[in-house]
Design brief:
With about 80 residues, this protein is mainly alpha-helical. It contains 4 helices and no strands.
Length: about 80
């Protein structure tokens, strides 16, 4: 992370980062549980596929945003 990127990170309030982390973790956990209930193998690719389908069905723009963040993190 270069200095400019670090400065951007440092301008985000800690509480907002914590809430984002919690929300994304919850979404990934919910996807994992849904896959487990279906008897599917749980791995990042399966979770991304599940979340992408969930994102397509979602009408709430904020939830769609957080699902997109989760997908992006899993694709790294």
């Amino acid at each position: 992370m270069d200095k400019k990127e670090w400065e951007v990170v440092m301008t985000i309030p800690a509480e907002a980062l914590r809430q984002t982390h919690d929300t994304v973790s919850l979404l990934i956990g919910q996807a994992s549980l849904a896959l487990h209930r279906r008897g599917a193998r749980i791995h990042p690719g399966a979770i991304v596929t599940y979340l992408a389908a969930e994102q397509e069905r979602e009408h709430d723009e904020i939830r769609r945003f957080f699902i997109g963040v989760a997908i992006g993190l899993l694709r790294v």
